[in-house]
Amino acid sequence: MSQDKVTRETIAKQISIEFGIAYSSIYKKIDRILEIWGNEITNSDSSISNIGSFKIKKKNDRIGRNPKTKEEYVIKSRKVISFKKSNKLVL
Question: For a Cys-Cys bond, which of 5, 16, 46, 73 suits 23, CB 3.0-4.6 Å?
Fold first, then answer.
């Protein structure tokens, strides 16, 4: 799995091949895990041992500009997830 982007599909395929379990079953389980984790992180900061921590940060309104037309517009405030890797995680 040495890719730039990891998707549910690639993870499900890899697990399916490695453990001989049906792809559809694995995909549903991965989907459910990500759903639970997504709900958890929206409520509070979250961390996974030896991997890292996820925090929700609020970005304020700001002025953006269309590079082609140079037209300015307001980018609304939003929440983003930031990740800080654990010191034990070796990449």
Answer: 16
